[in-house]
Amino acid sequence: MKATYLRWTLAIAACLAVVAALWPSEAGSPEEKAALEAGRVIITYWDRHTGHEFDERKVLIDEFNASQSEVYVRALPIGFTMEKLLTSIAGRTPPDILSTEGTILAALAPQHCVMPLDRFIEESESVDPEDFFPHVWRAVTFSGHTWGIPVTTDSICLLWNKTAFRRAGLDPERPPRTMTELLEYANRLTVRDETGLKQIGFLPWLPWDHTHMWGGLFGGEWFDDASGRFVCGDDPHIIAMFRWMQSFSIDPDAPAQLPYALNPEMVAAFRTGFGAYQSANNPFYSGKVAMTQEGEWQASFIARYAPELDWGVAPLPQPEGAPPRCYSPTCVLDMIPAGAPHPEAAWKYIEWFNSPRPGGRPSPASDYNRAICNIPCRRADVMHERFLGDPALSVFVNELLTKETPVFPVTPVAQFFIDQVERERELVTLRQKTPEQAARAIEDSANAELDRILAIMRRDQP
Amino acid sequence: MTRIERRNLRNGILFALPYLIGGTVFMVYPLVMSVYYSLCHYNIITPATFAGLDNYRVLFSHDEVFWKSVYNTLYFTAFSVPLSLILAIGLAVLLNQAVKGLSVFRTVFFLPTIVPIVASAVLWLWVLNPESGLINGMLRAFLHIEGPGWIADVQWSKPSLILMSLWAVGGPMVIFLAGLADVPAVLYEAAEIDGAGPWQKFRNVTLPMLTPTILFNLVMGLIAAFQYFTQVYVMTAGKGTPADSTMFYALYLYRNSFVYLKMGYASAMALLLFLVILAATAGVLASSKRWVHYHGE
Amino acid sequence: MASKTLQTLLVYAVLLALSAVFISPFLWMLSTSLKHESRIFPKPGEPPQWIPTTARVDAEGRPLVIYEGREGVDLGPDEMGRHVLRFGATEVTAWPGDFEVRQRSGLHWQNYADAFHKMAFWQNLRNTLFICVTVVLGTLVSCSLVAYSFARIPWPGRDTVFILVLATMMLPYQVTLIPLFALYRELGWVGTFKPLILPAFFGTPFYIFLLRQFFLGVPQDLSASARIDGCNEFGIYLFIMLPLSKPALATTALFMFLFQWADFLSPLVYLQDDRQYTLAIALQQFQSHHESAWGPLMAMSSVITIPIIFLFFLTQRTFIQGITLTGLKG
């Protein structure tokens, strides 16, 4: 027994020694402690982006920390895991600044979880709503207040593989300009043999489901901004768009098929061979998809993953009579959550980020967008040699500068709505629903979901 | 109550005290809260408002994806749990043989359990890629046949995930190994004297002696399979593609809670899941009196 | 005797075949971690590459190729996508799949350098180890006590309470996370390691169940004789049950360690400073919204995995150290 006691005592002592040796050091870097001792306000900045995008943000935050002696920003990458974000907001322990997407702001702001920035903007000399693209500014202003400052925006264009054009006997310098041409080119660029597809000319739901975008390019309205309701149910343009989508997949009941109708099973089999999006095997880079719809970030991706690719970029064609439109998905923005401990200091950083540097040099926001190959949200930042002078970027940028960009639905059910659009698009192209039924189903389910949320919000009003 | 019974009650509660406290604070409290949330409209951000059985009504009558996720989850559980058990027992028994290099083999079979999920999911996406992937590459090189579309194919996506789950049998296997260590060697010696072959020894000695660990792995396998989430979340970017064929119950629950912010609805789903798992576990435990053999008793 | 040999051979054959299946994705990870970014994903039509290679190039950096049995250099693609190949003075064009690019083995260690450069590796490791070790200790103490109660002390209501213990595992984390976070916030634990560590000292149902199953298997007459020797319940637990349950305790310790080593969500939710971050969260730094650094991600995944392999390799002896070795027979 005595020996056993001794062994137990030794084991416990050893465990305690290991734990003591591993005891973690206190939180906070040496710079942060120095800042605290110097009496600076420490604020926390959370970024949903990690990796490359966060690294570029960190460079600018370090610059901000070195540029003045009142505020110190502690940056934390939290990633796309929603749990972290929502627990901290629900738990009333939010950061001072949160960088996230417009859809999340639209879900949070009506619940009074975000601080209105009107007061700061009024007093600010450098942040002027007039400077921003209307579609991004609309994404941060609703219920009569401004809730965030947009950071990056995107523009979707048509990308084509010039080598594939040459092989198909098409002029490699002339992309399709009309919807008729788009279908005709898609047909000529589609290669199949007895074993299946070898090359797809174009599919409107590759690489992502872009049904929402095409609805707008057809001139349709998914969402009525004035009433805040979904209105696509009877929109003839949306229905026409769904009918156009159907021309890309065969109709099992029709005696004759459209020239470009592809068998969905054959497409699925071909799609399974697509490589990872960010690799040399991206189907567009490897020549499996000849024309695609992509954003400005491809300018840096292609240079990196497929430098040999001979490609061009042009505006996406639109049906005749449709208003000239550009498409931009939900934007990235910075906001100050309600209950943030130091909103004044947080605004100081946001303002610095959006102000031109001394001597007329571009703003940190411009630097950030250039580094991650996105488009800044202020016209003045975009109208600069570093964006307009880059031939790979200028087509994307010009779309935003010259055309009307529909606003991504500013509604708390934006994500739910997008999921419904994707689901109904699949049903339509599989001929399980008619275009009319799909448009109606989207409006009804999205509005029902919206009503549910609005009812809860009304009940919550004091 | 006799003196011994009283002492047993006191000792039993004293020994179980850590969990009686911890379970109440860390488990029962959230459980009670989620029962309450399931009767509420609750978006995580603002306080919950009572809504009666509304969530349950919508769930049963207006939600097609819910029923799809139920089917997918039952399909997965029905194949993955028994196959994993059989494979884990088979590996453990093989590894319990006195052959050379055992420690290396044991480590190899445990490897998939250790590889970080982010890395292993990415690996599987490549392994299962129909064109450039490992499996179809091998099939093409050695058997000259075209493999299926695996994870990207509506028909093959669930079997692919079941296959992936089999790869991670290292956990149950180690538990079976520890269980096999508890089988007294005298039992095998006695069986050999009776002239038993390898199969008879497995059937009449190993298997009955493993029943306590089989019970454990079965119950845990069921609970884990019903809540199957992480792999499919990483592999399909949380979307349950293609065409909802991998929209599992826990994944849909996740989308409702943290993407659509319908925590009340998600809590109702969670509670139904809870009841189903509870019934399944109680059923297994009740049946265990007939087939589990504890040699301590 | 011949059948015995045959049986052994069969066992080896099965083990080797299965080993190949189980080890191949791990080897793939190692191999990927040593590949240059451009070679990580196999080119269409090429077989997966196990040994990282790079193209052989001539003095001007042009790849050397073999086409129809002749050696030449690749001058790059023409506008139709065919490659122009030069053999001495002649030039021909060929589609990429029709000629072979000469390869030499080349390990790309730079991924590891990049990975270490990007992470506060030692800091993350120390945080991870601290959580792992304390949680394992807490789990071993608390779960073995609770399991002993459920397995060896016949108290009224025990089996009902046991089902309740199991039931607490059956709620998915998604719905318990919010109330738990609120609870930890009230306790002032958010932003500290406490929510990750202290609950382990109150027991975890999985391990309570596991240890209960093993404790049930230990013969009752051992505790009975100890009781006759004047040992109380705690003495039986400490001097009989724990020493006899080394395989089960080792399994518990290993599993808990592994789980904590890989756990991502709880540290992410409760820690509020990247100096507190664990290895699993830091891995996320190699993935971003639009692009992922696959090479460094796989390199760091390998770095994180290999110590665990050694840990398992060293502790596994305990799993097979059965009752027969601990003097049960005597």
What does this structure look like?
The complex is a heterotrimer of chains A (462), B (297) and C (330). By secondary structure, chain A is α+β, with helices and mostly antiparallel strands. Chain A folds into 2 domains: 195 residues, D-Maltodextrin-Binding Protein, domain 2 (3-Layer(aba) Sandwich); 224 residues, Periplasmic binding protein-like II (D-Maltodextrin-Binding Protein, domain 2, 3-Layer(aba) Sandwich). Chain A contains 20 helices and 15 strands. In chain A, the strands form 5 sheets. Chain A has a 6-stranded mixed beta sheet, sandwiched between helices. A 3-stranded antiparallel beta sheet of chain A has the order 12-7-13. Chain A has a two-stranded antiparallel sheet with strand order 4-5. The mean pLDDT of chain A is 87. With 297 residues, chain B is mainly alpha-helical. Chain B has a single domain, classed as Orthogonal Bundle (MetI-like fold). In chain B, strands 1-2 form a two-stranded antiparallel ribbon. In chain B, helix 1 packs antiparallel against helix 13, helix 3 runs antiparallel to helix 10 and helix 12 packs antiparallel against helix 13. The longest helix of chain B has 36 residues. The two termini of chain B are 23 Å apart. Chain C is of the alpha+beta class and 330 residues long. Chain C folds into 3 domains: 37 residues; 53 residues, Roll (SH3 type barrels), CATH 2.30.30; 214 residues, Orthogonal Bundle (MetI-like fold), CATH 1.10.3720.10. Chain C contains 13 helices and 7 strands. In chain C, a hairpin with a 2-residue loop joins strand 2 and strand 3. In chain C, helix 8 packs across helix 9 and helix 10 packs antiparallel against helix 13. The longest helix of chain C has 32 residues. The radius of gyration of chain C is 29 Å and the shape is elongated. The two termini of chain C are 33 Å apart. The relative contact order of chain C is 0.11. At the B-C interface, helix 1, helix 3, helix 4, helix 5 and helix 6 of B face helix 1, helix 3, helix 4, helix 5 and helix 7 of C.
